[in-house]
Amino acid sequence: MKFSLHDIHQFRNKLLIVLSMLFFLLLFSSCKNNIENSKITSTPTATSLKNSESSTTSRRINVVLATIDLAIGRNRLTFGLVDSDQSPLRVDSVKTDYLFMDASKIEVLVEGEAKYVQWPVSKSGVYVSRVNFDTPGTWMIRVKGIDNDGNNFFAETRFAVKSKSFTPAIDSKVPQSQNKKLSDVEDISEISSSTDPDLKLYELSILDAINNDLPTVVVFATPKFCMTQTCGPQVAIVSKLREKFEGQVNFIHIEIYENINDIDGDIEKAKISPIVMEWGIVSEPFTFIIKRNGLLHSKFEGYTSENELFDAIDRVINFKK
Q1: pTM higher than 0.90 for the full model?
Q2: Fold of 5-161
Q3: What gap in Å lies between CA 219 and CA 229, rounded to an integer?
């Protein structure tokens, strides 16, 4: 049986809804299964790792990845931490290291730090880290930190890194999409589910933007139907940045669904936008920053703070990575 790209994307969208629900059930509410609250003197992989901190006693917690589209190259990886009482663990920053688990000799290949970013609509949030993966396959993230009571904690999980991302790769050409503009519709509600849409976000198509010799910010989000309730705030941040970079950067908002006026509270009626499928969007919100030459500068899966986007826009304006 053959499946169209639309069928595949519809299946992926439903899967993401399930994953999103599981993520929030695990991360931000209590669950029936108790997480093991044990004292450990080394990590589960420490017997084969010379750099394990065997002298440090830490309690074991859970780490839940919030990023789906991971591939070789530069990545923005986000995750949540769940304490032994099923509550989210929030500290300013944690230490991270990454191991390639398919290697004959498993060792730490990347070390870094992840900072906590609060979401604007609730007490929820995620840790944000930057990592460059050079090999596809199974990787492990290990997280170490100190809680607000001064106690050490440790978490780890495995995940897959693809050889090619669903969305355009960094430094690759982006699709020259001809998304609907304000001039193409009778009412803004046809192309925006924002309660107070910034009309300037709907003046250009991506093709228009690529051809006008300015960097471009494109945010894919559906404020009215967003699973995480971060799409509205994300579009608002993009609108605010548009005002700060007026005349220097193009800004575009594109909805996830092409029939937002027909959904009427029933998400089963939603039809994925062909532009979303063209870009390989697998979650929302998703923000891209494009160079003047139409190559992708950076991308941000999930909610991204104003400061983080501001810094990225400033870099692309000044021809920096």
Answers
A1: no
A2: Immunoglobulin-like (2.60.40)
A3: 15
